[in-house]
Structures are given as C-alpha cells and as structure tokens.
Specification:
- By secondary structure, the protein is an alpha/beta fold.
- Helices cover 36% and strands 17% of the residues.
- It contains eight helices and nine strands.
- The strands form three sheets. The protein has a five-stranded parallel β-sheet with strand order 2-1-6-5-7, with helices on both faces.
- Helix 4 crosses helix 5 and helix 7 packs across helix 8.
- The relative contact order is 0.13.
- The mean pLDDT is 95.
- Bound molecules: ligand 21W.
- The site of ligand 21W has 15 residues, from strand 5.
Length: 243
C-alpha cells in the first residue's frame, strides 16, 4: 500500500510516521509514504502558496498552481491513484471507508489544505473529499495521518500479533472492554477477580458484557442487529443497572 501526502508542513507528517505500528510497517516495507512539500512546486522567489480570496472576506486561500504542479509531477509515473482532498466539507471518514481504501489497493494521494481552504478548481483533480469529523482543525495533515494510520493497520503483517487486528472490537461493531495489567492492586483499586481466574470462557463472557455496557453508555447507536446471545447479555445488563 502506497500513500502520498501533499502538504506545506512535511515534518508534521514525517515525524508521526517514525513511531509505533505505522513506523514499523514502513520500516518493514509493508507500506510506503512519500511526503511532498508543496512549496517545492511553486515558481516564485517567495515560494508563495496562498493569496487573497476573490470576493473578499477574511483569511487566505491556497492557490491551485502548486497543487497542480505537484500532482502533474506525481502522476507522471502513470500509476493509478485515488486522489483524496481532506476538507471539512468531505464525506465523514470511518472504519468502513478505511477498509474500502485498503481493498481498492490504489496509491492514496492525500491533499492537505491550510488557511481557509484550497481554490475550488482543485476539485477537477480530486476523486474523493474526506472529513474526519465535525470539529474545526487548522489543516488537513491530522486527517491525512488518521487515514494512513487506520489503513496501514489493515495490512496483513502490519500489527505485531495478527489477533489484535481481528480483536479490534470496533471492527466487531462495539466499543472495547476494559483492559488491566500489573499491578493487581493500585491505590486501593483492584483488578476484577474474573480476570485472575484463568477461566477463559467466563472471561470472554465478562468482556462481551463490559463491551456492551460501554457501548450502551457511550454509543447506543452502535447497538443494532444484535445476536440473540448479545441481546440476552444486554437484557441482563439492563436489569442489573435498573436494580
Ligand atoms: O483542512 C481541514 N480543516 C481546515 C479548515 C478549517 C476551517 C475552515 C473554514 N471553514 C469555514 C466554515 N465552516 C463551515 C462554514 N464555514 C477551512 C479549512 C480539514 C481537513 S479534513 C478535516 N476534518 C475535520 N475538520 C477539519 O477542519 C478538516
């Protein structure tokens, strides 16, 4: 899986990609990220990337030329790409979209805007517009990293033990269960005895129940088309809560 990022802050992207799961995946050659500094595709002495908006108004707008020059340079290898514009106006990103991008197996070219956004004519060179949520960021770089991180995790071999990819309970549609590790007691707070019991069947049941508890509390919208077993656990949970 290949990614390309167009940004005026390449260091922001590069420093994140040195660490953790994504860093290791890149080192293993499981994925590849090329970061392009937009200013390298300007033609003026001041390496200008923005200008005043036609029609007036506050803020600056990013010019189309540097993006166009960069895309023309990148596309000259003729390899098929999916060009994604990161913007607050985009389709809301999700695990489902991450899987879609992974399955397409095309190089993902991620365009990051700053200021008030990019000249609208960029849309002529864009396949998809993606937002990562309903909050205002200062640019597209964090969104580009969110996409890279979530898609790289889907590549076989990217995660240490394959299990944790499968185990991602979000993949199973619920929020996660609580996690504990040593010490057994901390500031008077003990690890639930069930987790020390070694009874794997009971532990699995406890984890499913706690995942449902968390989901009911924080994301009831995820509680749809439950299996009969899950429904039974949820009912048990509700009767406990309503005691
Ligand atoms: O480039 C991004 N943000 C920079 C940015 C922020 C605010 C404005 C100005 N908007 C004025 C307005 N809004 C509604 C009506 N008028 C433009 C550009 C970005 C990329 S993906 C993403 N996902 C979630 N949030 C984000 O901000 C982003």
């Amino acid at each position: 899986m290949k990614f390309e990022v167009l940004t005026i802050f390449p260091e922001v992207i590069e420093c994140y990609l040195k660490h953790g799961v994504v860093g290791r995946a890149l080192n293993k050659g499981i994925a590849e990220v090329k970061v392009y500094n937009l200013r390298d595709f300007t033609t003026d002495r001041h390496r200008k990337v923005d200008d005043y908006p036609y029609g007036g108004g506050a803020g600056m707008v990013m010019q189309i030329e540097p993006f166009y020059n960069a895309l023309r340079h990148i596309k000259s290898d003729g390899i098929p790409r999916k060009v994604i514009l990161l913007s607050p106006q985009g389709r809301r990103f999700s695990q489902r979209i991450a899987k879609e991008f992974y399955k397409e197996e095309k190089t993902l070219t991620l365009i990051c805007g700053r200021y008030e956004g990019i000249d609208e004519r960029i849309k002529a060179f864009v396949d998809e517009e993606i937002s990562i949520g309903d909050y205002v960021l200062s640019g597209g770089e964090l969104a580009a990293l969110v996409i890279i991180d979530s898609v790289v995790r889907l590549i076989p071999g990217a995660l240490g033990d394959e299990l944790s990819a499968e185990e991602d309970s979000f993949m199973k549609g619920f929020l996660d269960y609580p996690h504990y590790t040593r010490p057994e007691e901390f500031e008077g707070m003990r690890v639930p005895d069930i987790l020390l019991s070694g009874d794997h069947k009971k532990i699995a049941l406890w984890r499913k129940k706690e995942a449902l508890r968390n989901t009911l509390k924080n994301r009831p919208d995820l509680l749809k088309n439950l299996s009969a077993e899950d429904m039974k656990i949820l009912k048990e949970l509700c009767s406990e809560i309503n005691k």
